[in-house]
Amino acid sequence: MTQLPAAQSASQQSSDGSRALYGGKSTRRITVRDIGLAKDRGEKWPMLTAYDAMTASVFDEAGIPVILVGDSAGNCHLGYETTVPVTLDEMTMLSAAVVRGTRRSLIVGDLPFGSYQEGPVQALRSATRLVKEAGVGAVKLEGGERSHEQIRLLVESGIPVMAHIGLTPQSVHAMGYRVQGRGEEAAQQLLRDAKAVQDAGAFAVVLELVPAELAAEVTRVLHIPTVGIGAGPETDAQVLVWTDMLGLTPGRVPKFVKQYADLREVMTGAVRAFADDVVGGTFPQDEHSVH
Ligand SMILES: Nc1nc(=O)c2c([nH]1)NC[C@@H]1CN(c3ccc(C(=O)N[C@@H](CCC(=O)O)C(=O)O)cc3)CN21
Ligand SMILES: CC(C)C(=O)C(=O)O
Ligand SMILES: [Mg+2]
C-alpha cells in the first residue's frame, strides 16, 4: 500500500484552490464526483468541445477540466450541415481519439440523433459503446422530461449522464435554432425539464440558448451544475464549440460566441507562405535537406 504524503492529504482538505477543477494540483482524471463538489464550493468551470486527439491534448494541457465530444462534430468536423446525420459509429471513433489524446480532462461523449430516442434500452446499448469502445467517463443526451427514462436507466447502469435542455439542435427540424424558455409557459416547461433530469440522476445539465434570468433561476434551484451556452453569466459552467471560440468556423457563428483567436487567418497566412515558398523555390533550403 502506498501512503499519501502528509502534505498532499492536508492540501486536499484545504480551501486554497488546490482542489480546483481549473488550476488545481491534481493530475488524475477528473470524475463526475469532482464536478458535483465544484458546485458545492461555488466554483465556475470551463468546458470545450473537441473532435480529435491533437486538439483535445491542447485543451487537456491547458487545464480544461471537461471536454465534450459534441455531435457538433457533424458541422464542425465532418462537413455535414447539421448534427442530425452524425452516427454512433462516428461518435465512437471521435470519442476514442479524444480519450487517447487526454490524461486529466473528463471526456463526455454526445449521443447522436437516433441512438437513444427509441427508448431506455436503445440508449443503454448506445451509451455502453461509448463507454466500452471509446472510454468516455460520461455521456450526454438531449431532452428534459422526454428523456428522463433514458437518463434513469443509464445512471442506474453506472453511466454518468449530462443532460441538455433548452435549444436541442437534434430537433432542428421541429424547433429551428430559436431561443427557448421565453414567456411564462416556456419558462415553466424549462424548469420542469431541469428538475426532471436532476431527479432522473443526471450529474449536470447543459442549458442552451435560454434567457439569462431563467438560466440563473435554474442554476439556483438545482443542486447539480448547469453548463450554459448562450445562457448568460450565472450558470455554474460555460461551454463553447472549439472551432467557434478559436475562429476556425467558416461564416456566421451564433451570437453567444466570444472569439478568442482567429485561427482561420493564422492558418491561411501560414499555408499561403508555404505555397509561395514552394512556387518561388525558397523551400526547402539546405537546413531542411539531407545529404
Ligand atoms: N459551430 C457550431 N456552434 C454551435 O454552438 C453549435 C453547432 N455548431 N452545432 C450544434 C449546435 C447548434 N447550435 C446553434 C445553432 C444556431 C444558433 C443560432 O442561429 N442562433 C441565433 C439566435 C437565434 C434566436 O435569437 O432565436 C444567433 O444568432 O445566435 C444557435 C445555436 C449550437 N451548437
Ligand atoms: C453545443 C454543445 C453543448 C453540444 O451539444 C455539441 O457541441 O454538440
Ligand atoms: Mg450536441
From TrEMBL:
Compositionally biased intervals (Low complexity): 1-15
Reaction equation(s) it catalyzes: (6R)-5,10-methylene-5,6,7,8-tetrahydrofolate + 3-methyl-2-oxobutanoate + H2O = 2-dehydropantoate + (6S)-5,6,7,8-tetrahydrofolate
Gene Ontology biological process terms from the UniProt entry: methylation; pantothenate biosynthetic process
Enzyme class: transferase
Cofactor requirements of the protein: Mg(2+)
The keyword Phosphoprotein appears for this protein: no
One example GO MF annotation: 3-methyl-2-oxobutanoate hydroxymethyltransferase activity
Name of the protein in question: 3-methyl-2-oxobutanoate hydroxymethyltransferase
Record organism: Streptomyces lasalocidi
Higher taxonomy: Bacteria, Bacillati, Actinomycetota, Actinomycetes, Kitasatosporales
